[in-house]
Write a sequence for this structure.
């Protein structure tokens, strides 16, 4: 399934403090993953398969 989300992941994603799983696979995302993702303490799963993001 493709959502066709494009652009970059905003640093404000860290405000989703209860987020446990994030699947951004199969989108047209680009750029680096924001370091703010590390602030989401409950995040245990991050999938970015077939997206154009960097680490």
């Amino acid at each position: 399934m493709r959502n066709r989300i494009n652009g970059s992941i905003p640093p404000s994603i860290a405000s989703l403090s209860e987020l446990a799983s994030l699947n951004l696979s199969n989108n047209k995302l680009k750029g680096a993953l924001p370091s703010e993702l590390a602030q989401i303490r409950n995040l245990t799963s991050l999938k970015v398969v077939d997206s154009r993001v960097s680490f």
Summary: The chain has a mean pLDDT of 89. Strands lie at 6-7, 21-23, 28-32, 45-47, 52-54. DSSP finds no helices and five strands in the chain. Residues 7 and 29 are 5 Å apart (CA to CA).
